UniProtKB/TrEMBL annotation:
It comes from Rippkaea orientalis (strain PCC 8801 / RF-1). This is Aromatic-L-amino-acid decarboxylase. PANTHER family: GROUP II PYRIDOXAL-5-PHOSPHATE DECARBOXYLASE, MIP05841P. It is an enzyme of class 4 (lyase). The keyword Hydrolase does not apply. GO terms for molecular function: aromatic-L-amino-acid decarboxylase activity; pyridoxal phosphate binding. Belongs to the group II decarboxylase family.
Length: 486
């Protein structure tokens, strides 16, 4: 009765369980190769192990942590495994994890400069650093009229860029047209839909034989739209498409964007990181013509999800489109015009102190360390591509410009699908696929922090031996001929 109760974790408990949690993570990362890379559970398996109701009384942290092993781990696909070659790399390096921890520990929301000045100023500063680190144009720097901001993802960057383009046009939204290539990421289609443009006013421009957007086809489409009384508004080029790593011809696309007064956005989500290395900066040739640009340190730059760097040439075009000033947010610093309020650069109001982890990563590795891993992954991809080329059973679909190898078995889609299934069921490695020229194509994305030449060698050995087994498997080849006949 009247007894004072405190449900919090005590400082001593926090310290103890904090150390235990870090220990757990360090151990996990050391033995990550022991787990099947792709989780082997069936739908519903994880939920079946969870109680149907939330606990009425709090539980001990020891029990909670134990359930990570018991309930959660079987349902984990190990993105941090050196044998994860699916989709794209998602590097969660130790310094980035500590940066994330620091950010959640401080628990600040940096929507206004005034709500944590360091949160805004470190972000502005680190994003300026990255412009020099990647050799991006100076007009993206905050000291010019441009600037950078951290979004969560390339999808959000696409959405805010389409909105800025829409507002800049000040025209009938139903007549605005957006352009990108058939190989662009699906986020562009989503961005067009969300920003209120008509879905049918998105043109997916044909590609050339390198899977890059054809500038001639683009210009033809723009002319046709103008003739039909529509208003060309937005163009998105890609540096490193998701399916094949194609690099769109930015210089020619940018010239067309200028000629017809389109907002030109460049999406370098995975591949932008390559520009850390001066010898790979050719990928960004023409980016100086872009109105906006983004890349994801959370893919190939050792930074855990989420972290997208988004730059604009003219920050007013972005903030004019997104700024709303309610009474309860008014403050002196904002009124002075001397500060950046990042809430005006993104969709949500609130935002985390995300630049901390980027700052930790850049300071821990240094430019040199980050370059080392990019070079290593690119060299491994080239070597893997060479092995594919030398094997007559396989075809190298594109010469990899960077760290993604697209290849297929010569035996057709069903065999490639079976290779994929058997490899992923084996748990030894994880590979994903796409369609290029309407044919199933295997994608080997090399970029995990801990991936060594040995992992890539074993991957190739496994792919070859699985393919041979399938070819020699009479039941399977019979099944194929029946399906073909049907
Ligand atoms: C991965 C990727 C995306 C999507 O990235 P998110 O940050 O998850 O939105 C967009 N575009 C390209 C080219 C990508 O590789």
């Amino acid at each position: 009765m009247g007894e004072k109760r405190d449900y919090h974790m005590s400082p001593e408990e926090f310290r103890h369980w904090g150390y235990q949690t870090i220990d757990w993570l360090v151990d996990y990362r050391q033995k990550v190769e022991e787990f099947p890379v792709l989780s082997q559970v069936e739908p519903g398996d994880i939920r079946a192990k969870l109680p149907s109701n939330a606990p009425q009384q709090g539980e001990s942290f020891a029990e909670i942590l134990a359930d990570i092993d018991r309930i959660i781990m079987p349902g984990i696909t190990h993105w941090q495994s050196p044998n994860f070659f699916g989709f794209f790399p998602a590097g969660a390096s130790a310094p980035s994890i500590l940066g994330e921890l620091m950010s959640s520990g401080l628990g600040v929301l940096g929507f206004l400069w005034a709500t944590s000045p360091a949160c805004t100023e470190l972000e502005t500063h680190v994003l300026d650093w990255l412009i020099d680190m990647l050799g991006l144009p100076d007009h993206f720097k905050s000291s010019t009229g441009g600037g950078g901001v951290l979004q969560d993802t390339a999808c959000s960057a696409a959405i805010v860029s389409v909105i800025a383009a829409r507002e800049q046009k000040k025209a009938d939204i139903n007549r605005l047209v957006a352009y990108t290539s058939t190989e662009a990421h699906s986020s562009l289609e989503k961005a067009v839909r969300i920003s209120g443009l008509r879905p049918e006013n998105l043109r997916l421009i044909d590609i050339d034989h390198h899977y890059a957007m054809s500038p001639d086809r683009l210009e033809q489409a723009i002319k046709a739209d103008l003739q039909a009384g529509l208003i060309p508004c937005y163009l998105a080029g890609t540096v490193g498409t998701t399916s094949s790593n194609a690099i769109d011809p930015l210089t020619r696309l940018g010239a067309i964007a200028q000629k017809y007064d389109l907002w030109f956005h460049v999406d370098g989500a995975m591949s932008g990181t390559a520009a850390l290395c001066p010898e790979l900066r050719w990928i960004h040739q023409g980016v100086e013509l872009a109105d906006s640009y983004c890349f994801n340190p959370h893919k190939w730059m050792m930074t855990n999800f989420d972290c997208n760097c988004f730059y604009v040439r003219d920050r007013l075009k972005l903030t004019n489109a997104l700024s709303i000033m309610p009474e309860y947010l008014k403050n002196e610093a904002t009124d002075s015009g001397k500060v950046i309020d990042y809430r005006d650069w993104q969709l949500p109001l609130s935002r985390r102190f995300k630049s901390l982890k980027l700052w930790f990563v850049i300071r821990h590795y240094g430019i040199e360390g980050l370059q080392h891993y990019v070079r290593k992954h690119v060299a491994l991809a080239k070597e893997f591509a060479q092995w594919v080329k030398l094997d007559p059973a396989f075809k190298l679909v594109v010469n990899p410009p960077l760290n993604l190898v697209c290849f297929r078995h010569q035996g057709g889609d069903l065999i490639n699908q079976e290779i994929l299934n058997r490899i992923n069921e084996s748990g030894t490695m994880y590979l994903t696929s796409t369609k290029l020229d309407q044919k199933l194509t295997l994608r080997m994305a090399i970029g995990q922090a801990e991936t060594e030449r040995e992992n890539v060698k074993l991957a190739w050995k496994l792919i070859r031996s699985v393919a041979e087994k399938i070819i020699n498997d009479n039941d399977f080849t019979c099944q194929i001929s029946t399906e073909k006949a049907a």
